[in-house]
UniProtKB/TrEMBL annotation:
This is O-antigen ligase. It comes from Pedobacter duraquae. Keywords: Membrane, Transmembrane, Transmembrane helix. It comes from the Bacteria. The chain crosses the membrane at residues 12-42, 87-107, 119-140, 152-170, 182-209, 221-254, 266-285, 362-382, 394-413. The keyword Membrane applies.
Length: 443
């Protein structure tokens, strides 16, 4: 009870702001403005960042709401969401905390530039932001419109820079305490059926970690409820099932001591390049015109990769290689031919592949640069794990990347992507610092 009271005193205002989004109208608009402005100021100027505060400020954007247009996200008709609002449209700008957080990253990076050891990558990232802005201006002045907006490439470029930020959490214990809070609130929200945004894919990937980490009976019950939702078909998608299985497999290998601090430094890179290799293979193989077996698991997986995803990937890659190497016009749509229904479709949505999405929205150069950044970030994280707890956490990130990165694109978007890479980046920075201290003491 004392912990709950302390938590309410410390974060009560943020909980209150979250609830105000449910009222709609002017009240929700005021909450959006206050939250968004505070998010920017907090992330730029706060010397030591509380990751749970960041998560609470993002909560209405990555966990709540009715996302009936979002593929693979349950369309929950919960009464409390009838008036819910998390974005305020101001002309061409969609104001929200997820936007102001990523807008704050370049300023935070400049303030902390003396702490950075990745000057080459920082310079490349700032160049990428400039190139994405040029693409945005090209489309805006040409009158191009897209229902997904024109700022996707710009927001992707901003978001991925969070990987390069230096350590903002003072101690490992603080990180774990904040991380546990984020995971527990996510777990409860998902178990109660109140989560209807793309953070749910991240939560499912961390269920095996939470089973080992949280010892309370309530936590175990909530985890079982979440898994039960998958078994009864409420949250049954190939992405969710695949993420859980890969994460569970990694957890089993850690439990059997096959994956540990030493082995991950050697095999980690090979795990990370699997999605890249699979993407290349799918792009190379010819279209399957025979048909698909929807009655078997392997048949359905084949359909999702070849019949459903490959046409979008092919159209995305064709656009990438035919547009300017450095600059892509923002807000482009794809013309996709789906062989299994023998129809052409206008496709303004994402590429359902994080590498192809960055290439399509920013440029071929953007795809190569951010692909390198993603591989290096995950490699750094695996090479700097300090104990089995770190192994469990980082491998959950890898599992989400391997599955959700090939079936969607939200881990490179503002909101979900920002929170995903912020958590991984901060854990890696802390572990690298501790490894350097150990090496210094040992030397």
């Amino acid at each position: 009870m004392k912990d709950i009271q302390t938590d309410i005193r410390k974060y009560g205002v943020l909980y209150f702001l979250i609830m105000l989004h449910l009222f709609g109208g002017g009240i929700a608009n005021a909450a959006i403005v206050v939250s968004s402005v505070y998010a920017f100021i907090y992330f730029v100027f706060k010397r030591e960042v509380d990751l749970y505060v960041v998560f609470l400020l993002l909560f209405t954007n990555i966990c709540m709401g009715q996302n009936s247009d979002a593929e693979n996200v349950s369309n929950i008709n919960v009464g409390i969401y009838n008036n819910f609002k998390n974005v305020l449209i101001l002309g061409p700008l969609a104001l929200s905390t997820k936007f102001t957080f990523v807008l704050a990253i370049p300023f935070r990076a400049l303030i902390n530039i003396t702490k950075s050891k990745n000057y080459f990558l920082l310079a490349g990232w700032y160049l990428l932001i400039l190139l994405s802005l040029i693409g945005l201006l090209m489309s805006f002045t040409s009158g191009i419109e897209n229902k997904s907006g024109l700022t996707v490439g710009f927001r992707i470029a901003l978001t991925m820079g969070v990987i390069l930020l230096p350590q903002m959490v003072s101690h490992k214990d603080d990180f774990l305490r904040q991380f546990d809070k984020i995971m527990y609130l996510s777990l409860v929200t998902l178990a109660l059926g109140l989560m209807n945004a793309h953070w749910l894919f991240i939560v499912f990937g961390f269920l095996p970690f939470m089973w080992f980490r949280f010892k309370s009976l309530f936590a175990k019950v909530f985890i079982i409820i979440c898994l039960g939702r998958v078994l009864i078909g409420v949250d049954t998608t190939i992405t969710i099932v695949g993420t859980i299985l890969v994460s569970l497999g990694f957890a089993g290998l850690v439990q059997m001591k096959m994956f540990n601090t030493k082995s991950l430094s050697h095999v980690g890179f090979f795990l990370i390049v699997i999605p890249i290799i699979l993407t290349i293979i799918i792009l190379i193989i010819p279209n399957d015109k025979i048909g698909y077996d929807f009655q078997s698991v392997t048949g359905y997986i084949k359909f999702k990769l070849i019949g459903d995803r490959k046409p979008i990937w092919d159209a995305s890659y064709l656009q990438i290689i035919t547009q300017n190497f450095f600059i892509a016009p923002a807000g482009s749509s794809l013309e996709v031919y789906f062989d299994y229904i023998q129809q052409w479709r206008d496709w303004p949505e994402g590429s359902h592949n994080i590498f192809l999405e960055t290439g399509r929205q920013i440029s071929y150069f953007g795809m190569l640069f951010l692909g390198l950044l993603i591989v290096k970030a995950l490699t750094w994280s695996l090479r700097n794990v300090l104990d089995l707890l770190d192994c469990r956490i980082v491998l959950c990130f890898v599992a989400v990347y391997m599955v959700f990165g090939l079936s969607g694109q939200h881990i490179v978007y503002d909101g979900v992507g920002f929170m995903f890479w912020l958590l991984l980046g901060q854990l890696t920075s802390i572990n690298k610092s501790e490894n350097e201290n150990i090496a210094y003491i040992g030397g």
